[in-house]
Design brief:
single chain, alpha/beta, 4 domains, 25 helices, 15% strand
Length: 698
């Protein structure tokens, strides 16, 4: 056991190497380090962003290494977090390496370095824990030789958390294989009482065990100045940001709820003269690193980002966080705004909510854990002797790839399935669908959404409200005590008026119609299992198409949603004019000869009249409506293979035709309807098919 009386002095020296010559350990940081290093205990640390959680585990890791213990294993959720932490560790002389999806070519060398004792800290993404080779060949040796295990952003382990990741639950296996004297540290900045209790149960930290140290601090952030700007019109909301972005301090992050909104907003702000760039889940790894560095070095005013830029991005002087659209949870919101003002006296936090936010929340809620009958079909599909890949399972269950992966991971953690080389196997172990748990999760999600709506309408202290939502243990009991900094406490509200010229320019740019519809290029795998003999490259599909706009667009989204939410009616003149503008700007290789409307189950009049009007204006042959087969069941599948199979025979055979056909529909989502219809039209004699929709879902 380490008892050196100079240990704290050594810890202070390491902290100065890590955080600068003026850094000093706070008492609660030392309490955690002492518990881990000297007493070899487990600890749960729930502290606000900027408290210094990473300093605790890097200092403890180095002290343990100096005492002859094995390397520290840190389970860390995001590549951005890993990159920052490796750089931080190097400053303190800590030799750190990472194993994640972004450095596959380095895994063998890193494994050898760990075995040779040349690594002090190994950062592992949670997804690696369930990789068969890593789980079976690397993880056991890590567990047996680890000096300490750290679970960073531990709220991800919780079904109650705002960023639930099934792979995090695999950590229980890692911890179960540890010796009793191996210290474990779980850390998070964003957890209310429910999440803390769930994390404690999942990881075995934070319980009533006397060997566990729990450090839970207050969430007050004196640098954050919270405000809400209510502008219902999306064009005016965007113009407000374009007008005021340059006034915000330093550089920062502008969050959006969807990828398309981030990309559109970044284009618009750039056109207004601001140095910004989009950062989303579609941004490749190399570009992410470049963009992160640009923000760290203040080479951009802001990154316009989805939640892909969140946990672990460390810029202490980040001057502002703006949200165009409200996150669905105050826990998620606090986690994102906590990126700002960590080493500054003043940081602006602005929320611009929109009436479309709830629709986006509903979409994300719809892709949560599926109902029991669907999960049972997954289990039935796993009753085979040979492993099945996710792609092979897709044609057997009506789930898209992401949801299927989530279900398989949960079943794996619960012992009903196992990931092996070549795919997945069922274990045959009994499995119970925890309906009560998922019901609680749905209720919690609904309550958190309501809390965000309440936050936007508050007339009292905004920081106090967020601290209440996160069960801050240091929140003053007197409800009249506010932060003294938010717009409600100070009475200093941002003006909502927008410069007329800026609004006109913004509206013109946002309402510039036209969205590319990229054609499907490959048939889904496994269609033969569903009785459909299609596979490989699509050679008889449509050409690239167009939509007037996306339902999530900042410009056209609201107008399209209003039309589609209203009772079915003839297409409005304004939409026809906009559609004509899209067609006029279309760089097609051959002008269409005819127009064909698809029989819409929800908007038959809207779709048919749009096709008629386009035929009149463009002097095209009006082929009428391609009717749906009345004996064919509605196509509701989300999974691509099931959707294609369901679309076979969904429409009556088209009449013989020739030339290029413009095919019109009200809404397009997956693109498979246009693909299968194009195939039938080509078989009927068409030379080409040009898809056109009023609205693309995303």
């Amino acid at each position: 056991m380490i008892t050196d009386t100079d240990l704290r002095t050594h810890a202070e020296a390491l902290l100065r190497q890590l955080a600068g010559e003026h850094a000093r350990l706070r008492e609660d940081q030392w309490t955690a380090i002492e518990a881990l290093v000297v007493q070899r205990r487990r600890a749960l640390v729930v502290q606000r962003t900027g408290w210094g959680k990473s300093a605790v585990y890097f200092v403890a890791a180095k002290l343990l290494r100096n005492a002859g213990y094995g390397p520290t294993v840190i389970v860390s959720p995001l590549l951005a977090l890993m990159r920052n932490q490796v750089e931080s560790a190097a400053r303190a002389g800590v030799r750190a390496a990472t194993v994640n999806s972004g450095n596959v070519t380095e895994w063998d060398a890193i494994t050898q370095a760990v075995a040779a004792g040349d690594v002090d800290v190994l950062l592992v993404s949670p997804e690696r824990l369930n990789n068969p080779d890593f789980r079976d060949n690397v993880l056991p040796s890590l567990a047996s030789g680890a000096g300490m295990v750290v679970v960073d952003e531990a709220h991800c382990v919780s079904d109650w958390g705002h960023d639930f990741r099934p792979d995090y639950r695999r950590i229980r296996t890692l911890l179960a294989d540890l010796g009793d004297d191996v210290p474990v540290l779980a850390t998070t900045a964003t957890a209310n009482d429910r999440v803390v209790a769930d994390v404690s149960a999942q990881l075995g930290v934070g319980s009533d065990d006397s060997r566990t140290v729990v450090l839970r601090g207050g969430l007050e952030r004196e640098s954050l100045h919270l405000s809400v700007v209510r502008i219902p019109d999306p064009a005016a909301r965007t113009a407000w940001l374009a007008q005021h972005l340059g006034e915000l301090p330093g550089s920062g992050i502008v969050y959006t709820l969807t990828v398309s909104a981030a990309e559109d907003l970044a284009d618009l702000l750039s056109a207004s003269g601001h140095r910004v760039a989009a950062y989303t889940g579609r941004t490749d790894t190399a570009e992410r690193e470049t963009l992160e560095r640009a923000l760290l070095d203040n080479e951009v005013k802001a990154l316009v980002a989805t939640s892909a830029l969140g946990m672990g991005f460390d810029k202490p002087d980040l001057g502002f966080v703006v949200h165009i659209g409200a996150p669905s949870s105050p826990i998620s919101y606090y986690q994102q705004v906590g990126r700002a003002g960590r080493a500054t006296e003043h940081a602006e936090v602005v929320l611009l909510p929109g009436p479309e936010d709830r629709r986006i929340w509903e979409y994300f809620a719809s892709v949560a854990f599926p109902p029991e009958p669907v999960v049972r079909r997954v289990l039935d599909a796993l009753r085979t002797d040979a492993p099945q890949s996710t792609a092979a399972l897709e044609p057997l269950v009506d789930l898209n790839r992401n949801r299927l992966e989530m279900v398989l991971k949960v079943l794996d953690v619960d012992g009903a399935a196992r990931r092996v080389r070549g795919g997945w196997l069922g274990t045959g172990a009994p499995w119970t669908y925890d309906e009560e748990r998922y019901g609680r999760l749905d209720a919690a999600r609904a309550a958190e959404q309501q809390a965000m709506l309440s936050y936007a309408d508050l007339t009292t202290c905004r920081m106090r409200f967020l601290r209440e939502q996160l069960d801050d243990p240091e929140l003053p009991a007197d409800s009249a005590v506010g932060c003294g900094r938010c717009d409600n406490c100070t009475g200093d509200h941002h003006p909502t008026d927008v410069d007329a010229t800026e609004l006109e320019r913004t509206r013109a740019r946002l309402e510039r119609p036209g969205v590319l519809l990229a054609p499907r290029k490959q048939w889904p795998t496994g269609l033969a299992k569903l009785g459909v003999e299609l596979s490989g490259k699509i050679t008889d599909g449509p050409q690239p198409g167009r939509a007037l706009g996306r339902l999530t667009d900042l410009g056209w989204g609201r107008r399209l949603r209003d039309v589609l939410d209203a009772p079915d009616a003839p297409v409005p003149d304004g939409l026809v004019r906009a559609c004509i503008d899209v067609l006029a700007a279309w760089d097609w290789h051959r002008r269409p000869d005819s127009v064909l409307a698809l029989d819409s189950p929800t908007h038959p009049v809207l779709t048919a009249t749009l096709a008629q009007r386009l035929a009149e204006v463009g002097r095209l042959r009006d082929l009428g409506v391609l009717r749906r087969n009345p004996e064919h069941p509605p196509v509701t599948a989300a999974n691509s293979a099931f959707r294609v199979a369901g679309l076979v025979g969904a429409f009556e055979p088209p009449a013989p035709t020739e030339g290029t056909v413009l095919v019109v529909d009200a809404v397009t989502d997956t693109g498979w309807t246009f693909t299968t219809v194009a195939r039938e039209l080509r078989r009927a004699g068409a030379d080409g098919v040009l898809p056109f929709a009023l609205a693309a879902v995303r």
